[in-house]
Amino acid sequence: MKYAPGNNAMKKKGLLIGIGAVVLVIVVLIAAVASTYNGLVSKRESVDNAGAQIQTYLQRRADLIPNLVETVKGYASHEEDIYTDLAEARAKLNSASNAQEYTEADQSFESALSRLLVVVENYPDLKANENFIYLQDELAGTENRIATARKDYNDAVAEYNKAIKKFPAVIFAGMFGFEQADYFEAADGAEEVPTVSFE
Amino acid sequence: MKKIISMIVLLAAAVWLAAGSVVCSFAADFPKPQTGFFVNDFADVIDAGTEDELMSIGASLYKQTTAQVAVVTVDTIGDYSVEEYALELGRSWGVGTEKSNNGVVILLAVSERQVTIQVGYGLEGCLPDGKTGRILDEFAVPYLSEDDFSTGLAEAYKAVVTVIYEEYGVTPEIEYGAENYAQSSQSDYLGMAAPVIIILILILLFGGGRRRGRHIFIGPFFGGGFHGGSFRGGGGGFSGGGGSFGGGGASRGF
Fold first, then answer.
1. Is the pLDDT confidence value at A91 over 90?
2. Is B86 helix (H, G, I), strand (E, B) or coil?
3. Residue A14 domain flag
4. What would the pLDDT profile of A27-68 be if each residue is shown by its tens digit?
């Protein structure tokens, strides 16, 4: 009995330490969840940005076409079909509002572009034209940017998809609406980027 | 009790750290930059004198403008395209500063007989694809096709450097005959380049943060890990500053 107050004090102390530890665990958990959540948000943002970047470059490629067509027309005026197809594909691309439409427009665009570049092969003077070479470099560079942007997009998707499956994110990712993102996959035939060659 | 709780706390912290850590790795089959950084003659086709000259020009340009131009020669690029390979080098070496992305990689693949100029995001305005193609046609290909790799690369290097000096409005401190590389026909292309420039501006306005997707992931964890092209002191070594590339540029077979 003599030491009872001391015992009580010790018990209280122990209880306080216990409570403190529990609070600490909770704080750490909340911090972990918050940090993971923020990480997921920025990763999802990167996926969206990378997707937008692809569309920007598709647009850029479409915008190069009128100039290219003008130059080609000077040498190959009777290839009207291709010019019409290109113009239509470009209009489709301009009015595309979702990824699906973009992909479709892009496909018809690439097929028309390939045909244009085949036609070009028949006109050696055109191939030696400085303007044409310049535009063709712009086109090739843009193709390369599109390829790079698609790769970056898939990297961002991989990073994001991996992140939402990892512990502890996996516990609450679904709860907060973090769903798997889709990879960019070239549609059938679209993997063949029009080859711009200077041979 | 206390021990158990603290162990749980530690364990939770460890799991969290392990789960949250971001590993930043680069493909192992790409070479590391040499200490000179501006000239990386892995295929050993550039003669020593040219190498020294280009090194001084590169260092001088970097000192005056912070832009970095790296020339790289390799025996083979394997299954990669020459653009992919150069882009990967530019990104992983961080050619140019992280802030301005003002780097350029000139890559020669000897076996494939291909050459490319890849331009960092920040220099796409002054070095549009059409212009880099022209530089290759005018300055590099005539020599490269004769197997004079040293001269071809040096000419292309000087032409690129001259454009960058012009862009920054800086007069080169180093003498390399800059006037021979000035592109007098530049204005001919202005009209044609205008739409491209407008698009670039739009991209800059609306896509500013998008460029360095990879770095965004790393940022929160290793904030400030990249330095604007720092002088590594002693021995005249240089290193990349974290610049990034998006695939702009042109290539030629010869």
1. no
2. helix
3. no
4. 988 888 888 888 889 999 999 999 888 888 988 888 888 888
Chain A residues in contact with B9 by the CB 8 A cut-off are: 21, 24-25, 28
Q: Tell if the CB–CB gap between A140 and B1 is shorter than 8 Å.
A: no
Whether A166 sits inside 8 A of B207 (CB atoms) is no
Q: Which of B23, B85, B210 to mutate to test the interface with A (most CBs of A within 10 A)?
A: B210
SS3 for chain A, per residue? Answer: CCCHHHHHHHHHHHHHHHHHHHHHHHHHHHHHHHHHHHHHHHHHHHHHHHHHHHHHHHHHHHHHHHHHHHHHHCCCCCCHHHHHHHHHHHHHHHHCCCHHHHHHHHHHHHHHHHHHHHHHCCCHHHHHCHHHHHHHHHHHHHHHHHHHHHHHHHHHHHHHHHHHHCCCHHHHCCCCCCCCCCCCCCCCCCCCCCCCCCC
Cβ separation A63–B9 shorter than 8 A: no
Domain count, chain A: 1
pLDDT for B150 equals 95
Parent domain of A76? 44-192
A-B contacts at Cβ under 8 angstroms = 136
CB nearest A131 (choices: B192, B249, B253):
B192
Q: Is the pLDDT of residue A103 over 90?
A: no
Do the domain assignments include residue A111?
yes
Q: Does the residue A33 lie in any domain?
A: no
A36·B8 Cβ contact <8 A: no
Cross-chain Cβ contact B207/A56 below 8 Å: yes
- A85 located within any domain: yes
| Cα A52 off chain centre by | 6
pTM of this structure = 0.73
Q: What is the DSSP string of B178-204?
A: GGGG--GGGGGGHHHHHHHHHHHHHHH
B248 vs A contacts (CB less than 8 Å): 141, 144-145
In angstroms, the first-to-last Cα distance of chain A is 102
Closest CA to A114 of A195, A33, A198, A169: A195
| Residue to substitute from B186, B190, B216, B218, interface A, most A β-carbons within 10 A | B216
